[in-house]
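Hey, I'm writing a tutorial for new members on how sequence and structure tokens pair up, and I'd like a real worked example in the thread rather than a made-up one. If someone can provide the structure for the chain below, I'll link this post from the tutorial.
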Amino acid sequence: MLSAMPGLRPIAVFEEMLRRHPDLSPNIRRTLERRVRDWQALHGPERDVIFRQAHPPGQQGLSDFTDAGELGVTVAGEPLPHRLYHFRLAFSGWEHAEVVLGGESFTALATGLQNALWSLGGAPREHRSDSLSAAFRNLEDATEVDLTERYEALCAHYGMQPTRNNRGIAHENGAIEAPHGHLKTALEQALLLRGTRDFAELAAWRAFVDEVVGRANARRRRTVEIERATLLALPARRTTDYDEVLVTVTRSGGFILRRVFYTVPSRLIGHRLRVRLYDDRLECLLGSTPVITLVRGRTYQGRHGPHRTLHVVDYRHVIHALRRKPAALLNLVYRDQLFPRDAYRRTWERLCAAQPPRTACQIMVGLLALAHERACEADLAAELDSLIAADRLPDMNALLHQFAPAERRIADVTVTLPSPASYDALLGPDTPCGLVAGARP
């Protein structure tokens, strides 16, 4: 059986023996496993061999993505589903890690790889990855490299030779696979020392990752300096690390891109924008002129899930129109995303419960307009929280007076003109009048 089916496990052989010979004792299992192991060592098939590699300095850099959900990081109390892009030099172990909010896209790969190379100050001669969906088309089981045009151009821009390991053979990329665990262990220990896994904003978590990775790189300073001297020089500029899409701003005051609706200033209605999609943001250009940068929204739904549009809304873009039509707030499709802070949402719920719909809309729109025009969004939210705690509804007249701009008093300035005779002191007793600039004869 073992000769005919090399993949057969000892437990399967043991169960088959008990079925054929019920009188056998179950206590022979360990003995059977030991004898099967000995037989395989003497007569079994040849096994795969891992060939340890010597990595010369400056030769190879490796990229991969790893899921960071197990770290349990939250931002402002909300769970943060994300990955880490991980780059590492095979010789010195210098590494770079970057928070990725989306999947293993070309944009995330190109951004992370270029950030790593420019932080390092050079490029290795070879860039190795596993079968990244961002870089390769895995349309067949063949192990031959099938590079996408963009990935090939990215590596060529830095003079690197793109390579990859065989699909499904993780140990061929072991110089980056094993360090994934080391990186996440270091982050886990740093989070334990920090005492909390919650960060006020995403930028704080990014800075935390940079600090942990930076401390690890500092311990490798000597080998890094040896390798840095052998790296390829960087080109004069970076290359493209974004996707570009053309969109038209509709009468709804925004555009839909990849099942996400984004609001923009209403003066752009009817214009076509060139949108550059990065992993965490959208840069919108009118022709070649940058007009606005938006936070990128993501649906996090499966491929065959319901088609539900996500809304990324900035109330400042639409508040001027809502002031003219405040009743539109009642059934607005992105009404819940319109409120910039939780205090505004809770105030809206209280207004709907205590006031007629039209009055509630007018007050709520007035509050949003006040927050925008007086630049007091955070202070007004704190005031609304105190009103909710006191079980009181907002009084627009009182709030307008409270957040009115401070009166500016023009200072009284008295200018004393000097006497013309005082300029005579500038002239010495022997100075001819004609030698003094501006002197009259």
